[in-house]
Specification:
The chain is 36% helix and 40% strand. The protein has helices spanning 2-43, 51-55; strands at 46-49, 58-66, 69-76, 80-89, 95-105, 110-116, 128-131.
Length: 132
């Protein structure tokens, strides 16, 4: 009888620990996700495409920033080959980088193109990027 009671208590203990652990894990994941979303909103850069390029049928998708390199996903609405410039300004409007790139694509194509800035340019958080 004593062994049975001990066994039942052990099973109940382990089951409750599993449930508690699961709940703590879920809560921890929610907290980390919320913090990440808050950081992303505070640190994100904005990217704008000039009206002239938009009129040529060009659109942008996702962009990726890595140190001094900006990778932009361009979507071509028409056949296009052009030299474009990316300008970067900090959150106060102070310009601190320019880079040019030849982009080319046919209608309905899309691809990433890299803008490599001066090696001293570290693309800051909350920067505004204009492609013209």
């Amino acid at each position: 009888m004593k062994k049975t009671t001990t066994f039942i208590l052990a099973v109940l203990f382990l089951t409750s620990c599993h449930s508690t652990g699961k709940k703590v894990g879920e809560t921890g994941t929610e907290i980390v996700t919320s913090i990440k979303e808050g950081i992303d909103k505070n640190l994100e850069c904005t990217l704008e495409l000039s009206p002239a390029l938009q009129n040529k049928g060009l659109k942008t998708g996702k962009f990726i920033i890595s140190h001094n390199t900006l990778s932009v996903y361009f979507i071509f609405g028409t056949d296009l080959k052009d030299t474009v410039m990316a300008r970067i300004s900090d959150k106060y409007g102070q310009e601190y980088g320019r880079a040019t790139q030849v982009i080319a694509g046919k209608k309905n194509e899309a691809a990433f193109f890299d803008f490599v800035f001066d090696k001293r340019t570290d693309i800051e958080h909350k920067s505004k990027i204009i492609i013209e």
